[in-house]
Amino acid sequence: MHNETLIPYLLLLGDSALVQGQRLCEWCGHAPAIEEELALMNVGLDLVGQARNWLEYAAELLDDGRDADALAFRRDERAYRNLLLVEQPNGDFAVTMTKQFLYDAWHFAVLQGLAGSSDERIAGIAAKALKEVTYHLRRSSEWVQRLGGGTEESRQRMLAAIAALWRFTVELTAASDNEVQLAEVGIAADPATVGAAWLKQVSETFASVELPLPKAASHFYLDSRQGLHTEHLGLLLAEMQFLPRAYPDATW
Amino acid sequence: MYAQLVETGVKRVKSLEEMSPEERNFQEKVDAEIKIEAKNWMPEAYRQTLIRQISQHAHSEIVGMLPEGNWVTRAPSLKRKLQLMAKIQDEAGHGLYLYSAMETLGADRDEEIAKLHSGKAKYSSIFNYPTLSWADMGAVGWLVDGAAIVNQVVLQRTSYGPYSRAMIRICKEESFHQRQGYEILLTMMRHGTQAQRDMVQDAINRLWWPSLMMFGPSDEHSPNSAQSMAWKIKRQTNDELRQRFIDQTVPQLELLGCTAPDPELKWNAERGHYDFGEIQWDEFYEVIKGNGPCNQERVATRRKAIEDGAWVREAAVAYARKQQNKNAA
Fold first, then answer.
1. What distance separates the 2 farthest-apart alpha carbons in chain A?
2. Are A7 and A62 a contacting pair, CB within 8 Å?
3. Minimal Cα–Cα distance from A219 to chain B, Å?
4. Distance CA A27, CA A6 (A)
5. Disruptive mutation site among A24, A41, A52 for chain B (greatest number of B CBs within 10 Å)
6. A193 phi, psi to nearest 5 deg
7. DSSP line for A52-85
8. Helix locations, chain B, DSSP H
9. Sorted alphabetically, which Gene3D superfamilies does this protein's record hold (chain B) (predicted)?
10. Taken in order B168, B169, B170, B173, is the CA torsion positive or negative?
C-alpha cells in the first residue's frame, strides 16, 4: 500500500483547502462590496467542504481513531501540510486575490490531474472539486486583471502583493519525491505537469494586464511538506482550534 | 424582518373620501389584496416608508453577518463551520436581494448605505449585542432568526410586490437557519458537558429579551403602525407578533431543558397564550439611539469595509471602462 506516501499527499490537499478557507472566513463583514462578501464566503465554503472530504479519507487511512475533525482541530502546526502560500495573512484585497489566484491556478491543475487518478476515491472527490475550482480560478484571474489593469493605485498594490507572495510559489512548482512516486503509479497529479500548467496560467494572466512575471522563486529554509511553516500558521490554528482544544470532552 | 420603528411620516390615516382619485384607486387595490408593483402609482409617503423599511431590513442582513463573523473562524467542527459559512453567505444574498427590491422604488443602494454609515438609517437592535460564546451561534439562529421568521412570514403578504416576493424566498432559507440554530443548542444540551449546558443557558439569558425587542415597541407606543397597517405594508401589530413568537418558542425552550430569564413567564389558559414580563423599554430605546453595547463597533466596521474597499471598486470600474473602449476601438 502507499499509505506512507498517500496520507501526506491527502493532508497537503486537505490542509491547503482548509487553511485557505479559514483565511476567507476572516473577510466576513469586511469585504469591499456586498457581492464580494457573498463570493468570498462561497469560495471558502467550497474549500472547507473539499477539505472535509480529503481529511476524512486521510483519517480512514490513518485508522488511529482520529476523524476529520480531530485532524483539523487537534493537530499542531508541525503536523500541518498546507502550502505556505495559503497561510499568509490576508493583507489588503490585492494580497488576498493574488494569494487566491496563485493557489487556484495550482489547485486547478492538480485537480485536473487527480480527476483521472487510479484511486477511485481521489478521482471522485477531485471531479466534484474541479467544478468548483474552475469557477474559483475564473473569478480570481478576473480580479488579477481588474486590479492589475484598473487604476494606478490598484496596480501598485498588485505589484506589492506579487512581490510579497512570490517566494512561496516555489512550493507550487517543486516536486517532492513523495508526489513523484505517487504520480508514477497514477494516484497523484504529475508534479511536472502541474508546475508547467501553473506557470502557463500565471504567465498568461499576468501578461494580459502587463504585470511582470518575477523570475522563478528559489528554494529556501521553510518547507510545508516537512511541516516547517511561517509564523502565521500557529496563530491561525490557535484561533481555529480554540474550542475543541479548550473543551476536549465536548460534543458540538 | 428586522425592521423596527419605521417612520411613515403620516400623523393620521386618511379615509377614502379624503383621498385624491389616484390615491383612492391605490388604496382600493391594497384593500382588495392586489399587489402594488414598481411602475404603479403610489403615494410618496408609501414609497418612502417602504424604502426605509426595506433598506433597514437589508442593512440588518449585512450588519447581522458581523456577530456571526465573530465566531466563524472559531467554529468547533468542520460541519458547524460549513453550516455557519453557508448561513452567512445566505445573509449576504438576502441583503443584495433586498437592496434590489428597494431600488425598484427609485432609491439608490449606495445612498442608503451611506445613511447607515452616518448613523441616520437603522438596523435591527439585536445586532448591537455581542456574541460571547459558541452557544450564541445556536441562540442567534434559534431566537433571532426565529423572531425574524415570525415577522417575515406575515410580510410575505405585504402589499408591495417585490418586497413580498423577496420575503417568500428569504423565509425558506431562514427556516433552515432556525432549525440549524436549535440543533446546535440541542446537541450541546443533550450530548454536551456541564460547561456546554451552562454556555447554552447563558446565551439564552443574554439574548432572550433582546430577541423580544426585535418586534419593536408595544402597540400603544407604535405611532407608525396604523398607517403601515392601512397600507398593508405591515399586516399584524408588534404585540401580536411578539406574542406569537413567545407562544411558539416556550415549548422549544422547555424541550431544550432551559429557562427564560423572566419569572413572570407562564401559560395563561384563559387567554390561550403565555403571559410574560415587561420588556426593559429604556434599554430598547437606548440601543435604537446608538447606545447599545456594540452599536459603535458594528457601524464602524461596516463603514471601514466600504471605505477600505473604495480603491477596489474604483479599479473594477476603471478596468471595465478600458475593456469597453478596447472593444469599441
1. 55
2. yes
3. 31
4. 33
5. A41
6. -65, -45
7. HHHHHHHHHHH-SS--HHHHHHS--GGG----HH
8. 21-31, 44-63, 65-72, 78-103, 109-117, 135-139, 145-155, 161-191, 194-213, 225-230, 238-256, 281-286, 295-308, 310-328
9. 1.20.1260.10
10. positive
| Record: contact B309-A247, CB cut-off 8 A | no
Give the C-alpha separation, B143 to B85, whole Å: 19
DSSP letter at B75 equals -
Interatomic CA distance for residues A133 and A154, integer angstroms: 25
B259 touches A at CB < 8 Å: no
Would the pTM count as exceeding 0.90? yes
Per-residue pLDDT of chain A in tens (252 residues, 90 and over written 9): 578 999 999 999 999 999 999 999 999 999 999 999 999 999 999 999 999 999 999 999 999 999 999 999 999 999 999 999 999 999 999 999 999 999 999 999 999 999 999 999 999 999 999 999 999 999 999 999 999 999 999 999 999 999 999 999 999 998 888 999 999 999 999 999 999 999 999 999 999 999 999 999 988 789 999 999 999 999 999 999 999 999 999 999
Give the residue ranges of DSSP H helices in chain A.
3-25, 34-62, 68-73, 84-87, 93-114, 120-148, 152-165, 170-173, 177-184, 191-208, 232-240, 242-246
Q: Give chain B's end-to-end CA distance (angstroms, integer).
A: 49
Considering Cα of A142, then A143, then A147, then A148, what sign does the dihedral take? Answer: negative
Mutate to test the interface with A, among B55, B66, B88, B323 (most CBs of A within 10 A): B88
Instruction: Give, to the nearest 10 degrees, the angle between helix A34-62 and helix B78-103.
Output: 160
Residue A132, C-beta contacts closer than 8 angstroms, at least 6 positions apart: A46, A50
d(CA B257, CA B253): 7
- Candidate from A41, A244, A252 with C-beta closest to B85: A41
3-state SS assignment for residue A26: coil
C-beta separation of B151 from B215 below 8 A? yes
If contacts are CB pairs under 8 Å, which of residues 130-159 in chain A contact chain B? 145-147, 149-151, 153-154, 157
Q: How far apart are CA A178 and CA B256, in angstroms?
A: 50
Angle at CA of residue B29, ends B23 and B31, nearest 5° = 100
Q: Are strands B266-268 and B273-275 parallel, antiparallel or unpaired?
A: antiparallel
Overall size of chain B counted in residues:
329
Determine contact, residues B71/B136, Cβ cutoff 8 Å.
yes
